[in-house]
Amino acid sequence: MNLDGMRRFDRDEIVDVVVVGTGAGGAPLLARLAERGLRVVALEAGPNHDPADYTPDEVEATAINWMSSRFSGGDAPTAFGPNNSGFGVGGGTVHWGAFTPRPDARDLRLRTETGEGADWPIDHDELIRYVAQVEADIGVSGPTPYPWDPSRTYLYPPPRRNAPADLMLAGAAVLGIRAADAPAAILTRDRLQPHHGLRHATTNVGSIHQGERHGAKATTAITYLPAAVAAGAEIRPDAVVHTIERDARGRVTGVVYREDGEDRRQRCAALVLAGGGVETPRLLLHNGIANSSGQVGRNFLAHGAVQVWGRFDEQIRGYRGYPSAVITEDFVRPAGADFVGGYLLQSLGVMPFTYATSLVRGGGVWGTDLVDELETARYSAGIGMNAECLPSDENRIELSSETDEWGLPRATITFSPGANEKAIDDHAIATMIDLLTAAGARSTRVLARSAHTLGTCRMSDDPAEGVVDGSGRSHDIDNLWVCDNSTYPSALTANPGLTQMALSLRTADRMLAGL
């Protein structure tokens, strides 16, 4: 993004707020605070990308991903690299799929309704008001009316369907399952974005996970961050925070970050951590703070994201078009289920290298079998799920003894699905096989997968059960806030991006009310 003419603060100046991270958690908050006149500085570990450099080449496109190694273990190790990561101004929104279902009210009351998992200390109606604001701020397309919420409206019509989307709709029609065009932060008409300029309507490319050049896909780098800079915020790319400084009372006084090989300090009156479900707990654990509950790094959550792919007689060429153009929410609470929570389903198109990686990692396909699968990939269409995950103390992030390129201990992530997650997988797999078979698939293949990194600094009313309160403020340090998906008490069935931007605006308003 264009940082020319940006206001710059002296590092010896005590700014009102330092924000670590510029993705879905940090950027909306940064803009809101700057627009209210606060002196705010955002520190971003990655570079300031030029959209002209974005490429559909999956191998070359990893410049936008967090590629620094993490250790992943447990019964179902979480994939990182191009999955579950962002690196640069805009954070994970630069590579996200822009799939934007809203959070379901039942998911926020999971423990109250089922006795399992954890409730969110947030009112759903209040959260949805912020969700609607985000949808207007960034431009979200979708069907009006929306089948599972007839009162909902979208500003733009949905993106054009690709072949996998048409097949999912066909299968759903046969089975009597409701399915519809999916909500997506993808413009279907040109839009003049305040402080950024013209964003063009989508041309329905399938490579949006590799970055999108023309502004059709909403990222914080073309929405909230230009607004923040226009209001007087400063963004410092290539700035890796490693130390949080405190005074004798334990309150935050500043951060030390590495830039161009040198350590630099920025003093502040308040600190917001928005580095995501891995980097935020890693920083807190490294500094040994905000953890009187022992909950920092605990309760790592990953959405169940199993995919089922069907082989068809006709060519599908699923790499064309918006990848996730159709949704069903009929299984957010499926009748007669032997599990708590639920899942939603989305149609899947995929780029070739990503598909090959999924076959290896999720299907155990190697050698000549892999070559054969890739030779016929153009005849395949997929459906994927996004499923609830219950918190477990055994699933966690810890610090390893190995350090990274910045001298910080690498994160070790342990994740093993429990009985509830396995039961959801079984139900969803059967549903996806039925949908593809009803659409005419000659055969199907199941690819194991999880998605997103959540829950490792969870919010709670009781300080003994979490790291932050319902506003995102640390239970231990009153001028430390966390604003990213590490605060999720449970995973929700909805993808986290839209919800996280809404939480970011809400946390900003709570900060403004108390500062």
From TrEMBL:
Signal peptide start-end: none
Keyword field: FAD, Flavoprotein, Oxidoreductase
Pfam families registered for this protein in UniProt: GMC_oxred_C, GMC_oxred_N
Residue span(s) of domain Glucose-methanol-choline oxidoreductase N-terminal: 203-303
Residue ranges annotated for the Glucose-methanol-choline oxidoreductase C-terminal domain, each copy included: 391-503
UniProt cross-references to InterPro entries, sorted A to Z: FAD/NAD-bd_sf (IPR036188), GMC_OxRdtase_N (IPR000172), GMC_OxRtase_C (IPR007867)
PANTHER family linked to this entry: LONG-CHAIN-ALCOHOL OXIDASE (PTHR46056:SF12)
Family: Belongs to the GMC oxidoreductase family.
Protein name, per record: GMC family oxidoreductase
Organism expressing this protein natively: Microbacterium galbinum
